[in-house]
Amino acid sequence: xxxxxxxxxxxxxxxxxxxxxxxxxxxxxxxxxxxxxxxxxxxxxxxxxxxxxxxxxxxxxxxxxxxxxxxxxxxxxxxxxxxx
Length: 84
Description:
mainly alpha; single chain; globular
């Protein structure tokens, strides 16, 4: 998996609708359907790496109740793409 602007900086999910932060640093306030991080809220006081560790510790569950995981979704493979 290859990193892009619409990849979640916490869990590596590549399907965000917009980048977590604009080039100017403004948060999208989008909620990652995979890990549940809301950019500009959850990460305002907690680092992406700490949020990532909590998600991993919790068993890397799929967060969204309204969006199903993509076919073949593998959180272990996905997390490998994240810049630590």
